[in-house]
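Page 42, continued from yesterday. The earlier attempt failed because a stray header line got pasted into the input along with the sequence. Redoing it now with the clean sequence only.
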Amino acid sequence: MVGHAIWPPSPQVVPLATAEEDEVEEIERDEPRPQSVQILCKHGDEVVVVEEEDTTREMRRLKSALAGVMKQIEGITRTAEQRHQLIKRMEPLAEENDKLKEAMKLMERNIQRAQRERDLAESNAQDLEYQKGILSEQLAATSEQLWGKSEQMANASTQLEQKSK
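This time it went through. Structure tokens are written below.
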């Protein structure tokens, strides 16, 4: 069985109001007195104080720790809200990015098509130049043949005129 416990002193009692209600008396209170909590342990007939705490100091420490934790929670909440707002602002950007990627793919396909058409046009131009060269040579050869035939006909015509006289 545990021995007698020590109770903290009772707070000061407020005096009862007097019959005259017109007078108001201001009551001043003292600062709360520190209370001490003792954890006792009995060993045989002896009672030993295991732990003793000053509750006022402990309350201040706990309030301070609680205030720090509350500030951390507020910071975390603020950060989470900022992150959420940032994600909301990024959603349209992501959609716009997807549209731009599609436009880039379409542009790349158009560039490839234009390059193929340019290559085909260059190839056709080279073919036409080659054909022009061949036709120019054929025309020159045919022109020489015609010139030669024309001279032969002129000579034959002259011979016929001389024979006919």
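Notes: The chain has a mean pLDDT of 82.
Reminder to self: strip header lines before submitting.
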